[in-house]
Amino acid sequence: MNRTLITSALPYANGYIHLGHCAGAYLPADMYARFLRLSGEDIIYVCGSDEHGVAINISAEKENSTPKDIIDKYHSANHSAFQKFGMSFDIYSRTSHDIHHDTAKEFFADLLAKGYLLEKEEEQFYDNKAGMFLPDRYVEGECPNCSYDKARGDQCDKCGAYYNQIELKNPKSIVSGDTPIVKKTTHWYMQFNKFQEFLENYIESHSKEWKDNVVQQSRSWLKQGLTERAITRDLSWGVKIDKIPGIDKDKAKGKVLYVWFDAVLGYISMTKELMNELATNGLAKKEDWKKWWQDENTRYIAFIGKDNIVFHTLIFPAMLHAKGGYLLPDNVPANEFLNLEGQKFSKSRNWSIDLKDFLKDFPESHYIDALRYALAMSFPETKDADFTWKDFQARNNNELAAIFGNFVNRAMQFMFKNFNGKVPTLSEAYKFLPGDWNNLIDYFESTEIKDYEELFASVTEKLKRNMNENDFLLICSLWKGVKESSSAFRKFRFRDAVTEIMNVARAANKYFNDEAPWKSINENPEQCAKSLFVCVQLVHSLSILFAPITPFASKRIQMLFDMPVLTGAVDYKNKEANNWNFAAYPTIEEATKVMQPSIIFNKVEDDVIKAQIEKLGSFEEESAKPKEEYISYEDVMKVKLRTAKVIHAEKVAKSKKLLKLQLDLGKEKRQIIAGVAEHYAPEELIGKTIVVVANLQPAKLRGEESQGMMLAASTDDGKLCFVTPEKQDFPAGAEVR
Question: Packing angle between helix 494-515 and helix 469-490, nearest 10 degrees?
Fold first, then answer.
């Protein structure tokens, strides 16, 4: 591949970025982008704010503001935080820009003309007083299933039931407080079912190299079967469609593109915007955006969190394929979720660390590097992971300061003090060391031997004539670290990459200790000079290898040598060579003048960590939430729970959320309607033993009678699983107490 396009999921502009977001879609992408730039590859890294959707309207109403004020506030705050965090975006733009609206409308018009969009007339709540149709979040009422009186427009937060908003009892508009009327409106649906076979082939073509969580979630959606999906909604804020050719202007009045449809197109519009900016400076042509999105020599990598997987593996690829001529994601390395001190991030419970707040408390660059490093070593690459303040302290003190920083400080301070601030000149006895070093690395690069022990054992004495055992082992460790970290980066195994790089720093520390220059400075000055020459090479090499993780520290180290700074930052005028591979070679000349070094990483004290932990909210005393009322033992005993075996399951017609389950309760058969279709395919449930409420009053959902309620556990982020007996062969109809 000649070039790589990198994107991170566009953060929604109605809140601040927190550390969980950083670990999910942003820091991994930045590390990858910096690594590729350091490897001499042609890349761009695109991101920006997602600024449309009903949530923006609701935030504006809560803050007594306007949608424009909301997006300006959060876009500016998040962009600033990202910059201070060291993110190396080529562009960080906004979906509210005209170029984005034009791009989104172009896609809509093209899909409409090709017959991929379906026009549907449907019933929806309408607020006469406010003069608007009500999106689901703008209406509340009584749940048709459990009668909870604060149920939302399409889902009950109390019992979990899904329904059409017009099934709500006693509905109220949250805009005016009035009772809405039912009125017909028109919407346009994308016929994703037409792309079922294409997407199945697309996913399977990447099933061996993509992460398992990405493949399995995509397969699960495909297994259920793709359906038509609305891409417009009635709203005042968003990409308006009333002037798009081919649709009735009256029907399109008051309609905007659904935010999930237009947001992913931001990657394309922002690339166009970037090329326009570069063109004004003579660094690109405006039409160059096409080589990033339509040239087969480009590979596209989409970094996201796991809550965005299907939008980037199924929805967006279908849109790109339907439009025609566009590249599809070559990889979607989605991370799982990062927790905080063992619990899910929750701003409502003050159990969160916003990036802007961390930067306020720790503005120094070495602490920002420490955060990047701690997060990188906690990336939820294959499963949910945890960030703790104690781990942040330990990573900083015991690894960055005690290993990486310690080696740099010891070597540079010793050299500055004992060699007049210059890289030592090698004596006659060691004058061939740089050449032998180069030859040794060239040999490693050219051989086909794969096993490291066998490879290192195959080196002839002639190749290492100017090296002692310490020199040889250190150079071997450096080359191995360069190769292994490069391989790990390219496989999106970032924790492994960082571990390999830190192992090089460990080897460098061991070398310094084994060479003992504080002794040889008097006993064997020529060897001491050689040892410090080698150490200086490792200091510079480590500054390059750590650059994707700790770019601020790497810049400080490289500036000591008065050489070009190589941290993988954006630089269009000075395209870098493969400095990553060059890091294995000696690159610092003898007698190079070095500036006065200083401590790279300061330790984080216990009282600082204690203060940060105390800032977090308490899960035992959540003042923001009313305390749950206790119920009596007698009330509990009124609920009759029974085990039940699922003997048949099927989708409820015209519902994407409901399944109809036929259950065996031992002495009787029951039918239950459950809102789990987005979590389970019908065939997954057949034969499963679950727990149901057996004495719940029957209710009708979508014309089907539900004779009970199944029990399921759910999380704030939408994950759901059934409550089941420990042993799946447990008999149906057993009482649960």
Answer: 170
Judge whether 493 and 452 are in contact, CB under 8 Å. Answer: no
| pLDDT digit string, tens, across residues 374-412 | 999 999 999 999 999 999 999 999 999 999 999 999 999
What is the token pair recorded at 613? 């932990």
Q: Which domain holds residue 29?
A: 1-134+175-335
pLDDT for the residue 525: 97
Query: Inter-axis angle of helices 27-38 and 365-376, to 10 degrees?
Result: 100
DSSP state of 331: B
The residue among 622, 10, 11 whose CA lies nearest residue 347 is 622
Low-confidence ranges of the chain (pLDDT < 50): 619-627
- Write the CATH number for 322: 3.40.50.620
What residue type is assigned to position 648 of the chain? H
Q: What is the CATH number of the domain that holds 701?
A: 2.40.50.140
**Residue 69 amino acid letter:** D
Q: What is the pLDDT of residues 85-143, one digit of tens each?
A: 999 999 999 999 999 999 999 999 999 999 999 999 989 999 998 888 888 878 999 99
Q: Are residues 602 and 638 in the same domain?
A: no
Residue 601's closest CA among 433, 312, 399, 372?
A: 399
- Total domains in the chain come to 3
The angle subtended at Cα 154 by Cα 152 and Cα 160, nearest 5°, is: 80
User: Across-strand partners of 713?
Assistant: 721
Identify whether residues 439 and 520 lie together within a single domain: yes
At residue 502, the 3 state secondary structure works out as helix
Mark whether 701 and 656 lie in a shared domain. yes
- Give the end of a domain, one of 276, 306, 335: 335
Question: Does residue 589 sit in helix, strand or coil?
Answer: coil
Residue with tokens 């947001």: 263
SS3 per residue for 382-425: CCCEEECHHHHHHHHHHHHHHHHHHHHHHHHHHHHHHCCCECCC
Which of 274, 305, 335 corresponds to the end of one domain? 335
- Looking at the domain assignment, is residue 684 inside a domain? yes
Alpha carbon 196 to its chain centroid, in Å, reads: 26
CA distances to 124, 253, 459, 674, 701 from 704, rounded to whole Å, are 21, 35, 77, 11, 5
Place of tokens 């009678």: 705
3-state secondary structure at position 568? coil
Q: Report how far residue 371's alpha carbon sits from residue 300's, in angstroms, rounded to the nearest whole number.
A: 28
Question: What is the amino acid identity at position 617?
Answer: G
pLDDT of amino acid 621: 39
Kindly state the tokens that stand for 175: 């805009």
